[in-house]
Amino acid sequence: MHLTSRADSSLSLVSSSQGTNFTEAMALRSISRRFGSRVLSYRSSSVASLHSHATSFGFQQVKEEEKSKLVGNVFTNVASSYDIMNDVMSGGLHRLWKERLVGKLSPFAGMKHLDVAGGTGDVAFRIFDAVNSVKRRALRKVDEASLEETQIYVCDINPNMLNVGKQRAAERGLGDNKSLVWVEGDAEALSFDDNSMDGYTIAFGIRNVTHIEKALAEAYRVLKRGGRFLCLELSHVDIPVFKDVYDLYSFKVIPNLGELIAGDRESYQYLVESVRRFPPQEKFATMIADAGFEKVEYENLVGGVVAIHSAIKL
Amino acid sequence: MYRTAARRLLGAGFTTSRLLRLPKPRPTTTIIPYSYCTSSMESPIGNQSVNPNQSDPTAAREEGHRRDESRKPRAEFQEEQARVLAASLRHVPRLGWTEEAMIAGSREVGVSPSIVGSFSRKEAALVEYFMDECLQLLIDRVDSGLDLQNLIPSERVSKLVRIRLEMQIPYMSKWPQALSIQAHPVNVPTSFKQRAMLVDEIWHTVGDGASDLDWYVKRTVLGGVYSATEIYMLTDDSPEYRDTWAFLDDRVKDAFDLKKSIQEAKYFAQDIGAGVGKSFQGLMNGVMQTMSTRGGRSSAF
């Protein structure tokens, strides 16, 4: 009941105070939202189902069609300082997490891979390196022909992020490499054929997608039989004391870092909030299974700060 | 903390995903109904007799359901893995026990080579699959009437070990690699278990019902013979591995001699134990007696 009612009850509260102590504001906002929803529920349920559904933008409730725009703004704002912020926020750990992701994928020569929401190419370059590493080629007698066939599609909804990636590719001397293909596109409506990909990765991206189910269904659609879905995402910590430390770090330190380094507090406030709104590991695993995937597994890293979900299409 | 308290208060209702799961009035793509239907996969097909003129979402769901039923039965991951691995074995003589062989195998059965990444412990999966297959093959051979009746137990053992080791001949040039994979600390528990199963199977088939020796000793001894022969085989270039089989026969004989010597040693130990025990008992009795007499004496004073 209150699910549908959140739509418009919260809209009136979106603009509630951001000032003073934000945790108090947060609590106030959510409590009043809860209260408001109860009061308004009988009135609004019919209205909400007629109009678009509400979705979350951080802790705020926004209309579905607004979310993508708002997320777009966030990433347009932070594109230039995205990677340095990742380094600062995670203490460089995000590199290890991405290595782990690619390690789990175990890329191979001749693979068709799709990296969604990977605008800056962080994951794509790692996959490229894994396929092309000299050591691997020497050890495994990979024939050059299949190496040529390797294609890594980097898909991002935000052209600014893609530009950063292309620039970095040029810096690495991969500017006109045929293996890397940069595509602007929506995770919910991919422009690739059915059964065309060997692998699908999405690192720190699925959280920002408006309909996670749609993105999962699209991932399922483009993958070949035997193709793998891997998702690296900031997730939920359940270890008692560490959880409090992590919350403190997220809400007190990260927005300040964002202001200091990227000059954008709001975007990083959104980041930490959106992490809290993302479904917990088990729930997300169920969603992946519901999309039709088999062998759904997840691995928590750093006590659940990030989780890697993996699944296979059969 | 206010916030955490508030979140606890809000509980599960705080997530939007349930909202998204509400049936949508218009199915935008054909994939959407599919994402709905898989969750109800387990439910029996009984509810298929629905009125086709129902409202959109349910009808779409049913359609998805039926489409799924019409497909061939959902291949379990394990079966798929077995198919890929079976095909990969054909590439082992050329490519070794490697990911490359598994990639080639998966291409052969028409599955994306990506699947290899989801096998636990990669190459070990292939070796372990081979070990399991060979054991199964051995059991099948025995069940289909392998003539063991007119052989003495030691000959039965060496015959079974030989049959098993002969299965490895096509892979002999790459077998050292397989051994090194099995010896990797991560893989040791499984490879150890597989060897134990093999050895148990052999003892079982030999039908050595005598309970004169501990089962674990038997297992260890035959395990040793098996492994020694396996290693010997790696460098054996005699025609048809003749030297290996001679080596095997000798080791099995040794083992059965050892069995005899262990038995003798056991009896000997028992005798000694009895002897020592008796003298120890005698000693203790003596001590106790002296103690009690002394005690008696002291109490008399």
Automatic annotation (TrEMBL), chain A:
Membrane topology per the entry is: Peripheral membrane protein
Q: Mind telling me which Pfam families this protein's record contains?
A: Ubie_methyltran
Could you give a single Gene Ontology term from the biological process aspect?
methylation
| UniProt-recorded Gene Ontology molecular function terms | 2-methoxy-6-polyprenyl-1,4-benzoquinol methyltransferase activity
Major localization class: mitochondrion
Reaction catalysis annotation = a 2-methoxy-6-(all-trans-polyprenyl)benzene-1,4-diol + S-adenosyl-L-methionine = a 5-methoxy-2-methyl-3-(all-trans-polyprenyl)benzene-1,4-diol + S-adenosyl-L-homocysteine + H(+)
- Asked if the record carries the keyword Transcription regulation, the reply is no
Q: Which species does the entry assign this protein to?
A: Brassica campestris (Field mustard)
**Pathway per the UniProt entry:** Cofactor biosynthesis; ubiquinone biosynthesis
Q: Which domain of life is it from?
A: Eukaryota
Name of the gene encoding the protein in the UniProt record: COQ5
Q: What is this protein called?
A: 2-methoxy-6-polyprenyl-1,4-benzoquinol methylase, mitochondrial
Instruction: List locations, semicolon-separated.
Output: Mitochondrion inner membrane
Report the function annotation for this chain. Methyltransferase required for the conversion of 2-polyprenyl-6-methoxy-1,4-benzoquinol (DDMQH2) to 2-polyprenyl-3-methyl-6-methoxy-1,4-benzoquinol (DMQH2).
Q: Gene3D superfamilies, from UniProt?
A: Vaccinia Virus protein VP39
Entry's EC annotation: 2.1.1.201
Per the record, the similarity remark reads: Belongs to the class I-like SAM-binding methyltransferase superfamily. MenG/UbiE family.
Which terms in the GO cellular component ontology are assigned? Answer: extrinsic component of mitochondrial inner membrane
Enumerate the residues binding S-adenosyl-L-methionine. T120, D156, D186, A187
Q: What keywords are assigned to this protein?
A: Membrane, Methyltransferase, Mitochondrion, Mitochondrion inner membrane, S-adenosyl-L-methionine, Transferase, Ubiquinone biosynthesis
Subunit (UniProt): Component of a multi-subunit COQ enzyme complex, composed of at least COQ3, COQ4, COQ5, COQ6, COQ7 and COQ9. Interacts with PYURF; the interaction is direct, stabilizes COQ5 protein and associates PYURF with COQ enzyme complex.
TrEMBL record, chain B:
PANTHER family listed in its UniProt record: UBIQUINONE BIOSYNTHESIS PROTEIN, UBIQUINONE BIOSYNTHESIS PROTEIN COQ9, MITOCHONDRIAL
Molecular function terms in GO for this entry?
lipid binding
The Swiss-Prot or TrEMBL record describes its family as follows:
Belongs to the COQ9 family.
- UniProtKB keywords: Lipid-binding, Mitochondrion, Transit peptide, Ubiquinone biosynthesis
Where the record annotates domain COQ9 C-terminal, the positions are 188-258
Gene Ontology biological process terms from the UniProt entry: ubiquinone biosynthetic process
Places the protein is found: Mitochondrion
The biological pathway it contributes to is:
Cofactor biosynthesis; ubiquinone biosynthesis
One Pfam family this sequence matches: COQ9
Q: Where is this region: Disordered?
A: 43-77
In its keyword annotation, does this UniProt entry include Transit peptide? Answer: yes
Q: What is this protein called?
A: Ubiquinone biosynthesis protein
Say which species the protein is native to: Brassica campestris
Q: Name the Gene3D superfamilies for this protein.
A: Tetracycline Repressor, domain 2
Where on the tree of life does the source sit, at the highest rank? Answer: Eukaryota
Q: Where in the sequence does UniProt note compositional bias of the Basic and acidic residues kind? A: 59-77
Bias (Polar residues) ranges: 43-57
